[in-house]
Amino acid sequence: MTSVRTIAVLGATGSIGASALDVIARHPDRLRTSVLSAGTQVDALLALCASHRPAHAVIADESCFAALRDGLRDAGLATQAHTGEAALEALVAGDACDTVIAAIVGAAGLRSTLAAARAGKRLLLANKESLVLAGELLMAAANGANAEIIPIDSEHNAVFQCLRSRQTQGDVRRIVLTASGGPFRGRSRESLASVTREQAIAHPKWSMGPKISVDSATLMNKGLELIEAHHLFDIPGEKLGVLVHPQSLVHSLVEFVDGSTLAQLGLPDMRTSLAVGLGWPQRIESGVAGLDLLAQGRLDFEAPDTEAFPCLRLAWQALEAGGTAPAVLNAANEVAVSAFLQGRIGFLAIPALVEDALARLPAAPAESLEALLATDAQARRLTEHAVSQLAQSQAIPTPHE
Ligand code: NAD
Ligand code: MG
């Protein structure tokens, strides 16, 4: 009989969190939710506690702790309430779970992701920003503690599956990540100046949280994924490629030295990646239907347009520069995307702000977590300042009002 996997779902109230809990609930005999975490959404977290009955629930925002504790008590649930980053790290590292789903959005997920790696847990990694910010440190921590990382990002999950037919690192000639192209595929740069928040987050193929949806619209998401692939698969930038594939059915490809190319295909639904991570090396039901290629009709491929979508080029530059450059790229992008979502800046300001931060904070060696976090903070301050100046000087009419 298989033993029961005990799972911490970090970012449980988000889009990945919901998909993960859906897969877990399909396998009560082998998968159990033991820890649930969220940022600020107490009511959503309470509802999840009522349906999944974890032993622990963590709300990051300390001002929400009383509401969580009282809500659990009033509902008659045995779930213990916790708050703050240190509590989350302790739970992730301790006996409460053997598997951690890292699905917090942004650099805010770094510490808990690192804690899972250091504690040697099975780590289902969706939080790509932590790899972009501190990829070397995170991979070294995982290797040092024998933590098993299973990428959840659909492209990297595809590559993870295709790489099972590799014997040595030298067998791989190239890894090609596919990209849907986002909601603005085919548009000119000029025409993107006035796009709204609602247009940017309306992804044609995937249903995701607001930050990654904007990243998909700017193609920064693919840029972050290049850096993610570099760390996960220990592969240099020159062996990585990007192919736009609007149907989002081929999730990525691995080309081998003998001319074979393996790809993984499936419907665009994150439950497949999560089921791979939860069941591996076994295959388990995910709730996702199989792929009917006759019904889908055709698969198209095209080169990405880095003229209209400079974020992809900027990410490639940061990957090549190495050191602190990816941390700067990620921090500037998080600040710019948040300002765009708040209606403070226009869409084209996102790449402009990232480019500016990269130019003003040249790459330095990234020796320690402290150095990376200091760079992250510096890039955030600098970009925040640039956002306020831009918002004042341009007095952009808030596009979504
Ligand atoms: P989301 O916005 O839907 O959910 C984010 C979750 O993180 C929420 O539960 C929120 O409460 C929590 N959170 C936010 N800030 C926090 C903080 N400071 N401290 C603790 N918790 C915090 O995001 P999502 O779309 O589910 O994406 C999560 C991660 O997975 C991102 O890194 C994203 O790039 C990655 N990812 C998502 C998808 C997808 O299909 N949604 C696909 C690939 C990768
Ligand atoms: Mg992806």
TrEMBL record:
Residues 7-135 form the 1-deoxy-D-xylulose 5-phosphate reductoisomerase N-terminal domain. Belongs to the DXR family. This is 1-deoxy-D-xylulose 5-phosphate reductoisomerase. Mn(2+) binds at residues 153, 155, 225. Keywords: Isoprene biosynthesis, Magnesium, Manganese, Metal-binding, NADP, Oxidoreductase. Its cofactor is Mg(2+); Mn(2+). Coiled coil: none annotated. Gene3D superfamilies: 1.10.1740.10, NAD(P)-binding Rossmann-like Domain. HAMAP family: DXP_reductoisom. It catalyses: 2-C-methyl-D-erythritol 4-phosphate + NADP(+) = 1-deoxy-D-xylulose 5-phosphate + NADPH + H(+). NCBIfam families: Dxr, PRK12464.1. Residues 265-381 form the DXP reductoisomerase C-terminal domain. Catalyzes the NADPH-dependent rearrangement and reduction of 1-deoxy-D-xylulose-5-phosphate (DXP) to 2-C-methyl-D-erythritol 4-phosphate (MEP). GO terms for molecular function: 1-deoxy-D-xylulose-5-phosphate reductoisomerase activity. InterPro entries: DXP_reductoisomerase, DXP_reductoisomerase_C, DXP_reductoisomerase_N, DXPR_C, DXPR_C_sf, NAD(P)-bd_dom_sf. Residues 149-233 form the 1-deoxy-D-xylulose 5-phosphate reductoisomerase C-terminal domain. 1-deoxy-D-xylulose 5-phosphate binds at residues 128, 154-155, 180, 203, 216, 221-222, 225. Its EC number is 1.1.1.267. Pathway: Isoprenoid biosynthesis; isopentenyl diphosphate biosynthesis via DXP pathway; isopentenyl diphosphate from 1-deoxy-D-xylulose 5-phosphate: step 1/6. Pfam families: DXP_redisom_C (PF08436), DXP_reductoisom (PF02670), DXPR_C (PF13288). It comes from Pseudoxanthomonas sacheonensis. NADPH binds at residues 13-16, 39, 127, 129, 209.
